[in-house]
Amino acid sequence: MAIAAWSRWHWLVYLALIAAVFCNFVWFSIASRIGAGLSALSLFAQPLVGSFIGLVFLQEPLTLTLLIGAVLIFVALYLTSAATPAAPPQKATQPANTA
What we know:
Number of domains: 2
Order of helices and strands: HHHH
Shape: flat
Structural class: mainly alpha
Radius of gyration: 23 Å
Strand content: under 5%
């Protein structure tokens, strides 16, 4: 019973320190360097990474819906990253004071 209890605490500590604290620290550090818009694109990749890990380590089946979802994610990544950015707003110039 003591081994099972330690195992549960071990995974709880892992989830708290690695999955929550460390990963959020890394993500927000990168987001502060490259900007929120560009770092938000990485959120598209999370389902792909999760599916890939399931395929490799858990021997999940590669289904047609998984492939369609991956293609749609890649299309969305392309469309959001290839779009031309809007021009920055022009600063209003004040007329020269000729008085």
